[in-house]
Each structure stands twice: as C-alpha cells, then as structure tokens.
Amino acid sequence: xxxxxxxxxxxxxxxxxxxxxxEPFDGNRKNYETFGRQVATYLQAGNYTDKESIIFTxxxxxxxxxxxxxxxxxxxxxxxxxxxxxxxxxxxxxxxxDRNEAQKARDKLNVFKQGNFTADEFFIQFEMLMAKAGxxxxxxxxxxxxxxxxxVRWDIIDRIIESDGCPTNxxxxxxxxxxxxxxxxxxxxxxxWWQGGQGRNERATAGRGGPGGQRPSRDRPAPDQERAxxxxxxxxxxxxxxxxVDKQKARREGLCFKGCGQKYYRGHTCPxxxxxxxxxxxxxxxxxxxxxxxxxxxKLKDELESLKKRKDF
Length: 313
Hints:
62% helix; 2 strands; mainly alpha
C-alpha cells in the first residue's frame, strides 16, 4: 500500500513538471546543436517510446531543408517501419551536424579572450568549446593551460605565476583564476564605493569646515603661522606670504627688514620699500601690532647699546 502511494506521488510530480518545447528547426547547421538539446531535454522529462520520440522530433522540423527531410523520412518510416530512436538520431547527426565543428571549436579556443567576462562566465564558454572540440581536461592539460595563460586577463595570470605554489593542472588553474578574479572585482567595487559615495561625504564634510562645522577664515591667518605682507613678485591673490629668513634675522637684530638695513625705530620710513604704500592700504591689525612690538624691541636695544657705551651697565 505504501509502495503504491509513493509511486503515485512520483507520477504526480512528473505530471507537474513543465518543460519548454523545442523551437522549430529550419535545417541550419549552426542551430542544430541547440535544437537537438531542446528535443533531448523535453523527451527526458517524459516516458516516450522510440516511435513517439521520432514523431515528436519530426513534428518540429517544419522549415526550410529540415521540412523536406522530415517529410521524406516520415513517408519512408510509415511504409517500411520506424527504426530505433538511436538509429534515427545517428541519421539526424549525419545530415545536419556540422562536420567541421570540432576544428572550428579548436580555432575558437586559441583566440577566445576573457575580456569583460567574469572568470565564471569565461570558463562556461571555454569548457563548451572544449566539449565541441572533443578535448578532455585531463588528456589535454598542457594545451589548455597554455590557452588560459594566453587568454585570461594577464594581471591575474601574472599574480598566479609570481605566487608560491603555482598550479600544476587544469583544475588548479581554474580554481585560482576564479578566486583572484572574484577578489579583484570585489576590490574594484569597494574603490568605486569609496570614490563615489564616501568620497562625496568627505568632500561635503570638508565644505562645512570639518567635523566641528567651522569654516576656515579667509582673511585671518592661523595663530601658529607667522605672516608678512606679500612681496611685489608674489601672486596678487595672496594677501600674506611666509616670512623670509633674512627678514627674520633683521628683526632679531633690530634692523629694518624692508630693504635699507638701517636701525629700525617707530615711524621709520624705509627708502628701499617699494610696497610701502600698498602695504599700508592692506595692513591688518595683527600686522600693525607686530610692527609696534618690533619697534619697541628695537628701541630697547638702542637704549641698551647706549648704556653699554656709557659703561653705566
């Protein structure tokens, strides 16, 4: 009872299986392999006799030369009897299968490049060509590995060759290529994400003045950066330029740092300063404060020198 119930459930599952019917065949050899696979798939899903299988196949040969061939064979079979499906398939192959298919597949193997295919997509196509060419991965390993070295992306092949433990068989090469190709594509996606989404976020944060949201001042120099009026040869857009070494030295010694080299005092007018008028117009409060401090220091130094000369110190 239980056994009959199990058989019944299997029959129900088989009846529920929906398999696509073949596309009509017109006799074109380049379409024959696809047509034969579609017929075989449909017949495998059912329990058909040899006669039913032959009739089913002939019923989809309805265009071009295939239609003429099918009509001729059907008339002969109805008169002399139907052969086995295996004999019918052999006769079908002899008529429509491309006799140069194997050589064409070998030619394609020599030039089939990975290009933009993923490694998985490449190997599906590559192994289909192997099957058409009648090549096994164990009997033709040296030839197939050579084709992989030539046709897979060279940056991946270089990494394999330069690594320790280079594969020695076809399956090893296939596994390593698929692994490295997947890692490379994942890394490229990460870069796109960082350069796109994350990069825009970082630029937006910088535009708001950083994490604190404070925009950097355009007019006021940073507290720890010493500024000086721009020289005549500097970019007009730069209101401040870094202090030169000789100017710093002149300040330390209490000398004019604008060009004349004389002792500096408050209200000093330098005859060699060509930017004095311009500097006066663009002078900031910080610069004026620095100037006053320098003047006071210079004055104190002068007084110190005078004391030394009188030997009162």
